[in-house]
């Protein structure tokens, strides 16, 4: 069968044999693209003792996006304990403790990805071992928000064969119930990198398999020492075919949105 | 006029648009901007209510701004002489040597970055009695990524 499309391998990899994680572009699968980057200052000192829940950004994408939050107060234990969550229109901050005696200002950057956490991306086959060849004098660059094609800064490019791209292998939503932990068959042949989000009722911090008014909370600590709050800590197990999430303190019960990326963590197992 | 490359899948859904920013990783950076390395912390002790920190890894990135970064921590072997058995598990952006939420303290490694370096930092916090970390008997592999996009705006750039 003839295959049509575009495939661009990164520097040092033969395009005909390159595994997916050594491609900078392949029209078979999406890349992790950024929809918006915005710097935000969150003032917790509202003068009222209580929990805080307020909008910090309107994204208007019409779907619940994957996102990351980077608190600039790095390398410090951050108080009050808070988390960032998102629904189909807004991004919120939610404190998880009374904050009067722990007032402060969080300054950080919100990076919103152009990925619908409730959409399903079916896996595409991945093959072959990584390649390492001599550098070529030829390559391809495509500017992103940069203006100078000769720039030496990779932040200016959306494609650059001298830089690795993060491709999405598979995405979707999986439920954890009392007897079944969230398990995803990926068949990548290696332990994959991933992003995972807890889908929960926007007005509740309790994970639920029946949440309707849904907001997403990223799982996994970020810069600094953010205890990202109500998202339950998850241990991850993986082999070359499956990835499984399990609660650290108890069985995970709730809905997870996951993004499995095409890159190995520690090689094949 | 917009110039660039847009790819749609068979259903018409856009899956690549060169006008959007992407997370790229420099393949030729020295030191490397993505790699898997082994780390071992110390048995740092903390007194009641105290905090101790140590840097387990410092990677100069030479970007001139604080980059978006991420890391995956994988426990390489079962713990000898204490700690918790999490062999075979891996975590994104942090690892806890203690059962999470067990109370009494935190003992974690996580990543952070500034305009100069990426760091893996081991933090031990006591909320009650003194205790010592088990990091020295818990070898971890860390797969880290230093991405092209800034995590914060640096007004000097």
The percent range for strand residues of chain B is: over 45%
Helix content of chain B: under 10%
- Topology, number of strands of chain B: 14
Which oligomeric form is depicted?
heterodimer
Structural class of chain B: mainly beta
Q: Which chain pair has the greatest contact?
A: A-B, 65 and 59 residues
Give the helix tally of chain B: 0
Structural class determined from secondary elements of chain A: mainly beta
Tell me the major beta sheet of chain A: 4 strands, antiparallel
Q: For the residues shown, what is the average pLDDT of chain A?
A: 80
Written as H for each helix and E for each strand, in order along the chain, the element string of chain A is: EEEEEEEEEEEEEEEEEE
Rg value of chain A: 20 Å
Total strand count of chain A, please?
18
**What percent of residues of chain A adopt helix (DSSP H or I)?**
under 10%
Please mark out the parts of chain A with pLDDT under 50 across 5 or more consecutive residues, or reply none: 223-227
* Strand order across the largest sheet of chain A: 12-18-14-15
Shape label of chain B: elongated
């Amino acid at each position: 069968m003839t295959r049509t499309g575009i495939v661009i391998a990164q520097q040092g990899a033969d395009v005909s044999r390159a595994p997916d994680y050594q491609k900078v572009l392949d029209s078979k699968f999406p890349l992790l693209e950024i929809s918006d980057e915005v710097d935000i200052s969150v003032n917790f000192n509202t003068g009222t003792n209580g929990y805080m829940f307020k909008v910090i950004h309107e994204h208007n994408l019409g779907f619940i996006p994957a996102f990351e939050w980077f608190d600039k107060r790095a390398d410090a234990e951050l108080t009050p304990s808070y988390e960032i969550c998102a629904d189909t229109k807004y991004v919120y901050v939610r404190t998880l403790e009374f904050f009067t005696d722990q007032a402060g200002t969080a300054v950080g950057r919100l990076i919103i990805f152009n990925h619908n956490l409730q959409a399903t991306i079916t896996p595409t086959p991945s093959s072959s071992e990584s390649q390492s060849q001599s550098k070529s004098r030829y390559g391809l660059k495509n500017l992103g928000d940069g203006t100078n094609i000769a720039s030496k800064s990779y932040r200016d490019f959306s494609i650059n064969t001298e830089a690795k791209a993060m491709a999405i292998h598979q995405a979707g939503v999986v439920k954890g119930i009392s007897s079944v932990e969230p398990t995803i068959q990926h068949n990548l042949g290696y332990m994959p990198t991933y992003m995972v989000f807890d889908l929960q009722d926007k007005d509740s911090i309790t994970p639920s398999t029946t949440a309707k008014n849904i907001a997403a909370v990223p799982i996994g600590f970020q810069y600094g020492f953010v205890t990202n709050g109500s998202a339950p800590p998850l241990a991850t197990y993986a082999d070359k075919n499956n990835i499984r999430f399990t609660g650290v303190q108890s069985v995970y019960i709730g809905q997870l949105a996951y993004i499995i990326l095409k890159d190995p963590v520690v090689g094949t197992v | 006029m917009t110039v660039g490359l847009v790819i749609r899948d068979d259903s018409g859904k856009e899956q690549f648009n060169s006008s959007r920013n992407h997370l790229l990783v420099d393949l030729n950076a020295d030191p490397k901007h993505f790699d898997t390395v082994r780390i071992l912390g110390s048995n740092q002790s903390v007194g009641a209510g105290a905090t101790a920190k140590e840097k387990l890894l410092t990677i100069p990135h030479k970007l001139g701004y604080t980059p978006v970064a991420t890391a995956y921590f994988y426990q390489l072997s079962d713990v000898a002489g204490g700690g918790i058995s999490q062999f075979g598990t891996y975590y994104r952006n942090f690892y806890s040597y203690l059962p999470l939420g067990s109370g009494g303290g935190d003992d974690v490694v996580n990543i952070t970055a500034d305009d100069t370096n990426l760091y893996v930092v081991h933090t031990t916090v006591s909320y009650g009695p003194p205790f010592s970390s088990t990091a020295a008997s818990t070898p971890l592999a860390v797969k880290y990524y230093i991405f092209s996009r800034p995590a914060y705006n640096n007004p000097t750039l």
